[in-house]
Amino acid sequence: MNVARLFEPRSIAVVGASKTEGKIGHEAMANASSFDGPVYPVNPSADGSLFGEPFVASVGDVDDTVDLALCCVPAGVVPDVVAECGAAGVGGVVVYSGGFAEAGDEGAALQRRLVERAAAHDVAVLGPNTSGFVDPRRELYASFAGGVEQFRPGDVAIVAQSGGIAHQLAFGALREGRGVSAMVGLGNRANVGFEEVVAHFDADAGTDAIVLHVEGTDDGRALLETCRAAETPVVAYKVGREDVGAFAESHTGALTGDHALYTAGFHQYGVPTVESTTALFDAGTALAACPPPSGPNVGVVTAQAGPGIVVADLLQQRGATLPPLTDETRARVEAVLPGITYAGNPVDTGRPMPAFGDVVTAVAEDDHVDVVLVYELFEGALGFPTESLDGLADRVGKPVLFATEGPPDEMADDVAALREAGVPVFTTPERGAETAALLARYGEMTTEVSADV
Amino acid sequence: MNVARLFEPRSIAVVGASKTEGKIGHEAMANASSFDGPVYPVNPSADGSLFGEPFVASVGDVDDTVDLALCCVPAGVVPDVVAECGAAGVGGVVVYSGGFAEAGDEGAALQRRLVERAAAHDVAVLGPNTSGFVDPRRELYASFAGGVEQFRPGDVAIVAQSGGIAHQLAFGALREGRGVSAMVGLGNRANVGFEEVVAHFDADAGTDAIVLHVEGTDDGRALLETCRAAETPVVAYKVGREDVGAFAESHTGALTGDHALYTAGFHQYGVPTVESTTALFDAGTALAACPPPSGPNVGVVTAQAGPGIVVADLLQQRGATLPPLTDETRARVEAVLPGITYAGNPVDTGRPMPAFGDVVTAVAEDDHVDVVLVYELFEGALGFPTESLDGLADRVGKPVLFATEGPPDEMADDVAALREAGVPVFTTPERGAETAALLARYGEMTTEVSADV
Asked: Which end of chain B is more exposed for a tag (fewer CB within 10 A), N or C?
């Protein structure tokens, strides 16, 4: 199924657009109206206009080619609306309503009708039972949720089986000052599934990493093949380690399957996995920003020992290796900081200091190190070693991650400058360590896959 | 060792106070000068005044009883300064410098001298090798770190072996709009250890939960006995699941010991444990705000299925039980929401809706449920069910937790109102689930301990 007109429309129709605030047909129209192209509210029983656009009675009456229709009508009439859209030449439809495959036999039959109508007219259907998608770079807000117009453009694409998770991830990114290239909630995957969406954003020049939330899919192999074929790094979070089957099936009509099988499959196909939504987006942020790691060895530099120990502990729990540094690196570090607190790995400087950036550089240049993780509590008088870190990752060809904490307002500009310099910045030692460990696993995988060839 | 004058001083001296910005003697004086009581800068070689206070040559020259001295001098002279403080009648000293037990045989000998001098004069010594402590309720900032004057007063006391972790936790709380009753970094624990500090804040009327960060201690039993004796709930994070021994010993001179033994010990003594700094403070927040749970059964209400599944999955991974709801509760929920998306446990309403608070109330009143966890993405048109949740936890005698995400600025007032109503609010489904699982373990423990009696 071709999804180009769905995700990159030049024109939008909102079918079931409504003047009543709080209704999905109103909220979807409100969001869509930010789009820098024609947006047509469609409703046979409404007069006048909505957000400055005159109502049209049906999609067929729009005097334009409609690429994308946002379908805000009750489940029962969705198949007919999709057929109507198809007849009118619409390329993609987002179906928000629930009551399909997730809702018993009757719903499943309704979804089959929907799929047949879509197939007859070659219409790509996102959903049903989704809160939609957003592409902030295009000011394209095909979601009915409030506040999505605040999402910032970024380079990580969120592809979530659950619309709720898609929004949770994107709002979490917003809260932390990060952006997304796109956010997609798949819902019941009538005829647009993981494969279509991953392939689309793999080909998208502005997407540098894809993060997947997976509850379950009938065609796991197709998903895995698509991920392996992608040139863009993909990371996956498969829920359902414990039994959540009945609840999950009621959600998007999918069985969750065997968690261990999924995880093994992802790893075999070169896709690292994580175990939380937070780790998922953090991993995407790091994969998008950094050169790919070429092995599992993490070098840690910390300005405070306590968080450094937390980091070292968690890295090892997650299977990362903390190699001894080379003699040359140790000599460099000790030349910079005679009597340094701890010059193993982690290197601990005890406090932030002007030479901190030199220490990080020495560790980043160490041949034993594939991934660099820095932890430093912010001290206003010194700021961060942004100058040393700017361009360092690209120069050494390794990811360089930074985790920190401090007075939020005082440090905001310094955090922004670090990010501007291409360094992913995390709060809490654990998030830094989880992400470094993910990169270490990815580095190990990539090396193994290359070795196989 | 009595720590009352250390933590509740009426007067402060900063020994080694300095006019040079960036020096610890300057930063400590800058922070201390917020104190609403006399603060004396002490330095025999300085003239004039600092932050409006005239320099004094020695602590003995201060024409007042000094309760607390902040010791900002190099390690080598610390024992003499402590003796001098003791002779002058000082009750407590914070020693910031490192170079003691964490730094080899010579440092260990220096620390023994320090302890002897302190014992001779009955002086409580926090540190050495700590960044100090803060009590925002007293505007008492006995730390040299910048920005600590922004910490908000709250009801959770942070007691961390590492000053870096203490500050990381407190700055993290600040970033998320939460407060602390006090933040203490123990460092090398010359003669003020976990026992003294836990006992002190247990007796503190404004502290409703104590969170412990533990690297290792020689007297684990004393710590456990103190925790068991505390009426205030205590939760612990023991680092060192993996081998971080050499690095940790270089930090505060303590061996990390056997992680499994510590964990088993804590559980035996009624102290639930967590595995991250984030989970630690989240647990403290919940324990401080909520009535104690009386069992391990969690009832979950979610307005979006995706995050609900994540919650159900993680709760089970962490050993919590999701019991079936009573027939009465199911009937109540279905009366409120005919054709509800999923009325097992979790109860899933599919979207936020006006009746959401009624559903939460029904689950909270269910006899099978000991802990309630709610997840709801924010929708501006509806806000949160604050009215239903206000007083609910106290009325049903169970913790009620709330996790959410949404447009940060739009939801800020609603989050504040929920917290004002006594409901702990978390971001991400995982943090909600981790905290609910902690409460479930605590509920199970408490029940077992009661059953033993």
From this structure: C
From CA B448, how far away is CA A283, in angstroms rounded?
Answer: 40
End-to-end CA distance of chain A: 31
Q: What is the mean pLDDT of residues B57-78?
A: 97
- pLDDT for B448 equals 67
Nearest to A439 by CA among A312, A240, A283, A315: A283
Residue of chain B with shortest Cα separation from A146: B379
- For the cut 60, the answer to whether the pLDDT of residue B451 exceeds it is no
If pLDDT is split at 50, 70 and 90, which confidence band does B453 have?
Answer: very low
Question: Can you read off the two tokens belonging to residue B25?
Answer: 């003697």
What distances in angstroms separate CA A213 from CA A162, A186, A189, A238, one per listed residue? 8, 10, 13, 6
Structure letter (DSSP) for residue A297: B
CA B132 to CA A27: how far, in whole Å? 51
Domain locations along chain B = 1-131, 151-289, 292-452
Assembly ipTM: 0.95
pLDDT of residue A98: 93
Which residue among B244, B276, B381 sits closest to A312, beta carbon to beta carbon? B244
Q: How far is CA A355 from each of CA A78, A358, A388, A430, rounded to the nearest angstrom? A: 64, 5, 10, 25
* pLDDT for A453: 43
Fold (CATH) for A291-452: Rossmann fold (3.40.50)
Report whether pLDDT(A219) > 90. no
pLDDT tens digits for range A319-365: 999 999 999 999 999 998 887 767 789 999 988 889 999 999 999 99
| CA separation for the pair A187, A131 (Å, rounded) | 8
Closest in B164, B172, B313 to A306, CB measured: B164
b vs e for A21-40, b when ≥16 Cβ sit within 10 Å of the residue's Cβ?
A: eebbbbbbbbbbbebeebbb
Q: Which of 3.50.50.60, 3.40.50.261, 3.40.50.11720, 1.20.1250.20 would CATH assign to domain B292-452?
A: 3.40.50.261
Is there a contact between A317 and B215 if contact means CB atoms under 8 Å apart? no
Do A1-130 and A151-289 agree at the fold level? Answer: yes
Residues whose CB is less than 8 angstroms from the CB of residue B373 and which lie 6 or more positions away in sequence, other chains included? B298, B299, B300, B301, B311, B315, B401, B402, B403, B432, B433, B435, B436
Q: Which CATH class is domain A151-289?
A: alpha beta
Please state the φ and ψ torsions of residue B404, each to the nearest 5 degrees. Answer: -160, 175
pTM given for the model:
0.96
CATH architecture of B1-131: 3-Layer(aba) Sandwich (3.40)
Contact B197, B159 (CB under 8 A): yes
Residues of A with CB below 8 A from B348's CB?
247, 250-251
Query: In sequence order, which ranges of A230-346 are alpha helices (DSSP H)?
Result: 245-252, 259-268, 277-289, 305-317, 327-336
Check pLDDT > 60 for residue A413.
yes
Segment A154-166 mean pLDDT:
98
For residue B420, give both structure tokens.
């004002």
Q: How far apart are alpha carbons B446 and A297 in whole angstroms?
A: 43
A250–B342 C-beta distance less than 8 A: yes
- Name residue B276's amino acid: S
Q: What is the pLDDT of residues B372-411, one digit of tens each?
A: 999 999 998 899 999 999 999 999 999 999 999 999 999 9
- CA distance linking residue A190 with residue A95, whole number of Å: 9
Give the position of tokens 């962490």: B318
> Helix axis angle, B356-364 relative to B327-336, nearest 10°?
170
Our CA angle for B189, B194, B197, nearest 5°, is 100
Report chain B residues whose CB lies below 8 A from the CB of A162. 304-307, 309
Q: What is the average pLDDT across A188-211?
A: 98
Yes or no: say if A281 and A158 are a contact pair by the CB < 8 Å rule: yes
Give dist(CA B187, CA B326) in Å, integer: 50
Q: Do B277 and A428 touch (CB under 8 A)?
A: yes
**Rounded mean pLDDT, B3-23:** 97
